[in-house]
Specification:
Radius of gyration: 28 Å
Distance between the termini: 74 Å
Number of strands: 14
Number of helices: 16
Shape: globular
Structural class: alpha/beta
Helix content: 40-55%
């Protein structure tokens, strides 16, 4: 197989997709490619993906490679990581016989990821899942014991400008099936008008549907400048000592923000913010709630999420996967009956209206004259 195309290269897939154009080759360094990253590559219509790490390491059954395969996007693993030393955005590369060339010079051997390889690797990963589950649970309980007081009692929760007390709050994370779930609950959003909280890229997910976040929370590593500027209030998730890697970016944009030092994930503190400020109901879309979700995020446990969900559980409605429960469909017979129903009032009006009677007589006379009857 011969391919020649420009490339884009970045060790962080979420940063790379912001620069990718259709028909380019994506060069990444992404161990266990996850679903969200794979879908973002599919949306960009890349020509191929070269990974300087393992698409499937066998740690757990990640779904990213299967998504690329389903969309007929060729995948290759580089034998080493020197691609980041030799390649830059815009280089025109050639892929020929599982070899990568730049200006006619061999840069690296490649291993093509086939259907058979993915099937075998996923079977092995499934077999390893029980071992990973045991490690995951142990790690979760260990950190839950250490963080419980800090996260649930000693954490200082800021008060938003917008009053949350007694209202519904929608927390949106750009997680699995977030588009489908968000689309399904649009009638709820229109009717209830909840306070909208976007978590990092969840803010951009809301903008896709024309919804401006009332509050944006996160470390700001996967949200667009546009969303940062348009969100009504921004909280930057920081370490407990107050330092936040995302603050430098915020300062460059000149946006007024509030620092929110806290352990755990940004989606955890978004829910705590809503709960502690008196939300009547918290609806979550796209959040991470199981082991595979967290492994895909590079986390070895979910202590903070376990603690937060146990605390706010009485007010939390997790809308993850709600699109699979409710799918509106319109059958042909419904359309026919609707058409017939719409004709009935027209027939009734025509039967009792004198002006319409005269109109019909005129039309009848003109037809007779036209036809010479």
């Amino acid at each position: 197989m011969f391919k020649r195309a420009p490339l884009r290269i970045d060790k962080k897939t979420k940063n790379l997709v912001t620069r990718l154009n259709p028909g380019e080759v994506a060069v990444i360094h992404h161990k266990d490619l996850d679903e969200i990253a794979a879908l973002s590559l599919v949306e960009k219509k890349v020509l191929a993906v070269i990974n300087c790490d393992n698409f499937i390491s066998g740690k757990y059954p990640n779904s990213g490679p299967s998504i690329l395969l389903k969309n007929q996007i060729p995948m290759y693993e580089a034998e080493n990581s020197i691609l980041f030393e030799h390649l830059v955005d815009g280089d025109i590369i050639e892929i020929n016989n599982n070899s990568l060339y730049l200006d006619g010079k061999l840069i690296s051997q490649l291993k093509e990821i086939t259907t058979e390889f993915i099937a075998t690797a996923l079977i092995e990963a499934e077999a390893n899942l029980e071992i990973e589950l045991e490690k995951f649970i142990d790690n979760t309980l260990h950190y839950a014991s250490k963080e419980k007081n800090l996260l649930l009692r000693d954490l200082s929760i800021p008060i938003p400008k917008l009053n949350i007390k007694g209202r519904h709050v929608l927390v949106v994370v750009r997680g699995k099936n977030y588009r489908e779930d968000l689309e399904t609950i649009l009638p709820y959003i229109k009717q209830e008008k909840p306070v909208i909280i976007g978590v990092d890229g969840g803010g951009d997910a809301l903008l896709e549907f024309g919804i401006i976040p009332d509050i944006l929370i996160g470390d700001m590593d996967s949200v667009s400048d546009i969303c940062l500027k348009r969100s009504k209030q921004v909280y930057v998730h920081a370490y407990l000592d107050g330092y936040s890697p995302g603050m430098e970016r915020i300062k460059k944009l000149g946006i007024d923000v509030t620092t929110f030092p806290a352990p755990g994930t940004s989606e955890d503190i978004a829910m705590l913010l809503a709960y502690e400020n008196g939300a009547d109901l918290i609806v979550a879309v796209g959040t991470h709630s199981n082991m595979v979700d967290f492994l895909e995020k590079g986390r070895s446990g979910m202590a903070s999420t376990l603690l937060v969900r146990m605390k706010i559980g009485t007010k939390l409605v997790d809308a993850k996967g709600v699109n699979q429960l409710y799918q509106s469909t319109i059958e042909t017979r419904h359309i026919i009956w609707l058409g017939l129903a719409s004709i009935i009032p027209i027939v009734i009006i025509a039967g009792v209206s004198k002006p319409i009677h005269h109109l019909f007589r005129i039309i009848h006379m003109r037809l007779r004259l036209f036809l010479g009857i």
